[in-house]
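Sequence only, no structure available. Ideas?
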Amino acid sequence: MSLSLLPFTRAAGAALLLAACARSATVVSTPSLQRDARVGLKAGLYNAGEAISNLELMATTKSPPGFEGVTNSDLAFSGKYAIQGNYNGFNVWDMSNPRRPTLVKSYLCPASQSDVSVYKNLLFVSAEGLGGRLDCGTQGVRDTVSSERIRGLRIFDATDIANPKYVGNVQTCRGSHTHTVVEDPKDKENIYIYISGSAGVRSPREMPGCVNANPDNDPNSSLFRIEVIQVPLARPQDARMVNSARIFEGLTAPARHADIMTAEDSARMAARARTQPARAPRPAPMRGGGPTQCHDITVYPSIGLAGGACGGYGLLLDISDVKNPIRIDAAADSNFAFWHSATFSNDGSKILFTDEWGGGSAPRCRATDKPEWGANAIFSIVNRKLKFHSYYKIPAPQTNVENCVAHNGSLIPIPGRDIMVQGWYQGGISIFDWSNPDKPVEIAYHDRGPVSDSTLVSGGSWSVYWYNGTIVSSEIARGLDMFDMKPSQFVTQNEIDAAKTVRYTEFNAQGQPKISWPPSFALARAYLDQLERNKCLSALRIAGVRSALSGAERANPSARQGTLNQLSTDLSREAAGSCDANRMRLLSSAIKDLSTVS
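Reply:
I predicted one. Tokens follow.
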């Protein structure tokens, strides 16, 4: 299967990459996936057929009463807890035993889409739909203009996570479709939140100051901006908006393929709006000056950058001044319908953007759908500019009753490689290696048959993330899934064991942490396995190093230190003659660090 790659040309004086179809590349499909078990799975809500490869499904837990049958949304993690958003509020799960997660708290507080994030004792929840109430009531809001409505950010004190306290909110003109927690290393008194609001602008009679006009006509426009919220850690109830960052200035409407938004798409979205009014409105169409909002922003504070997935564009932002993010580059792609979310490689040299073509409610993984539509686009970052490399899309076709498109995921901390787990709605979850940005390769998956065999009923993985050794998926229609990764020809047990040494106290996928690995024999063996895989160390030398590591592991501390120091020195000397000198140095360094552990 082949697809078009988009070479990018820079307009003079503009930080903008414009795409045009040209040379071809290959969507990678590996030999083990040629006869794909995902095709033809039986439909059903709780009894659908399943296909799984190189994963173990440890647990599937239904949504609790009051939340079952209501859309599950995004995930955040704190300590041993997974916090799962739901259009009716959120649920807190104790995942200390991932084979038997237990419900700790259900908090009823409707407002689509209830995306969640955490920071220390604080929990943040997005509210965008017209029916969300300030008092968390379930009766909705009937009036077009109402002082009872919330569209913005809810703030909870989750010091006692079993009894979170609703302490405040910040209203915004377009609500909060998603949000991103950003820590400013220069400001320890506050935490900051970037708000991405996708809905139409509120009436100024409901929220004074809201302006539904092009910035050319009114500089106070509520369009073409993101909101920056400052939350005082000592008094979160005093949170307020401190900036409206105009990161879209100078962008024009990007080129589009006319056939991306079909009549079928328009009819489906209109029908969905009639039958599911509680779902958050889809983004407003672009007006003259390009995209009017971001859908999602992923920050990578350790490198001072953020990736803005902003409707018609993927943006690269400088966030060294957290309160004032600045666009430094942008990419447009006529094969992309809706830039949805972003993930950086761990070293910050690459970024992956997703395309939520069809808004998550359409079937976009059928055999008849082009592979570059509803996919991931992978870029390298060169001198703080975006350079396109390839697309990645799940290789197994889905049916016309399965909503399927690229959605949310995160890195799996396998050392020395960029491996990501990602949700594809009813396309299931896919794990793929994008270390080589030109040749992403799928290495594991899980998929279920459609919820219904006759009608498109929303379901599948909204988001799936790696957290402290467990892969956790928020299943839109069914509940919460827990997975463990299994060794295969693509990933060794040593690599998995090394990944499991990475531990977080909390995790928000949109606030990407720099991954580091503590010293361990698993880490050293993982690098050695990789050198064996790429044939950059002889079989005889690999056997010798493995034997030396095993001997050191059994030895007393003094003898171990001497063995490991000598081994590290020898490998460092050999690195210059290797076809993978960098990985040899990583192996040498891992062994050196290991020698310091008593």
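The chain is about 15% helix and 35% strand.
Hope that gets you unstuck.
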